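Input sequence (446 aa), recorded before submission:
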Amino acid sequence: MNYIIKNGTVVNEGKLEQRDLYIHDGKLVEEGASLRNPQYFDAKGCYVMPGIIDTHVHFRDPGFPEKADFATESRAALAGGVTSVIDMPNTNPQTTSLETLQAKEQIAERKSLVNYGFMLGATNDNIRDLLEIPTDRYAAIKLFLGSSTGNMLVNNPQALDLLFKESKKLIVAHCESEDIIQANLRNYKMEFAGTDKETADLHPKIRNTEACFVSTYKAVERARKYGTRLHVAHVSTATELSLFSNQELSEKNITAEVTPNHLWFDDRDYAQYGNLIKCNPAIKSSDDRIGLWGGLVDGLIDTIATDHAPHTWESKQKRYFEAPGGIPSIQHSLQLMLEGFFNPAATQRDDHAEVLNEWLPLIVAKMCHNPATIFGIQKRGFLRAGYMADITIVEPGETHVTKENLYYKCGWSPLEGQIFHTRIKQVFLNGMPAGQSTAMQLQFDK
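Predicted structure, token format:
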């Protein structure tokens, strides 16, 4: 099938251009190519960008059907303009071997509505086995330096040294100091457990700045020692930014990710949302949030990914110490970022349309180009001839977030009631309009 997307403002590789996109056999071809009986899509008044690549999702499949599965969460992803995802290994069973990887691939092949890939999880005992798996089979090695859902904590120094020394694959690290967290947790439980002060605003005090900085510092130090490619997930503090550089991406061995949640919320929001915005690492202060925006703009932070992590409504209603950490967020991640640049705290400006035009290339770089480059995703993330035609088309217009229009299996979002000033008009996946397309497994560089 051939398509021509006409009259849109194309956002790609640092530019906004009025031009048409030509699609043949699932791929982009040169503008003006002769296409037999093309179907036309009019994108007048819209922004046309590469499909969003979310390199940090927890679709909970297999093992947690009450929370989520690949069918429901990929539907939510597609509704949000996300065309490719990389799923995390803390499922049940955990994705820590070639066999469990193959099992997850089969699940996604049956269920997923978006393109998919996976990370393999490191443990204290599986490093040598991981290093034997062909590196083009998976996106990266996920390393938990602080415990989170599924508890895959790696705290053996010998195992860590082996991984950082020998890995030819990107290491993605969840950086929080387990020792600091556990010490804080004991102290706060002794003082507040069971009282009316056991509330979610304790979370950034327990999983605090020190816990993040100490762990990130150690991971960066190891990566520099061994020349390892390291990607630090969900940076949550302004303090950690001092550990990164704003060199050109091609010159970096160490890169960083931020989530829309850490850019949107801060610790003042616990009073309203409570456990609904409890996530690991914790959402922290307004100064941290503004600092993260600065790091995104200055090039210290390289990618935006959601850490989409659904839990049931019932589990989030438990007392703070018992409630799990994680936020469902993939359906509105692009809109959050587009709206975020309207935020005076981020831009110090109120000329919304001009601000959006100015910053759209940055959003596309952090959500499309850089994820593809850092994770070695082949032929995606850019609007280039020969690349797969994964395309997201956004138009100005209000979107009201309600429980009824959420696609998450868990059925809730802290964004309920939010009004966005953009909406996802159309998504093309592998050269076909969403709903007519078939998802594909992502291919990775060796």
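Checked by second reader. The chain has one domain: 51-377+397-421.
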